[in-house]
Give the backbone structure.
Amino acid sequence: MRTILATLCGLLLSGAALAADLPAPPSPMVDPHAGPFNPKGPAVDRFALGAFQHGFGKDKLQVIAKSLGVGSVRELGGAYYQYLCYDLPERRERVWLATFDEMGEGGVDAVTVKSLTSGDAPAGTCPALPAKFQPVVISGKVRLGVTRADLVALYGKPGLETGGWLVFGGGGEGWRTSITVRLQNDKVVFLYAENTSTD
């Protein structure tokens, strides 16, 4: 069910302007559920904000915001999609932490990180993430700036590769994980990591 919600949220977010006071998480331009899912694929089980580790599906947005000392949870399309948004001004990056929980009370299901471009809302639009909570790293290994070779060494051949986008999918009974990236000059400039239940 939560995978269905994740897909529906992605379709919603791929639209034009959205009525939100902070930038909503951007949707990848490819389906993060595309391609074969490899049981030995990416173990998207945790993410780090600096030295501070958080678990997918475990740590709630409200708790994370309180621990960071900045930011507040926003809703998009009702309580089914909630998110936190932070800027990393010196790195020219923006990060979103999101949950697809049907009651709006679940842990983080997805993390999106992207390099800011001229088409984005300017740095400072979202609250600044304190330096001690930087960088943002997925499962101890994946972050903006890694290369295709780095990802292939970690996860093998991507399940989907098209137009600079790569999707690495994994999963098992009742759950799915994926890491979706966009490359520019062979470096990751957009990163979407997801860990959702298929129940």
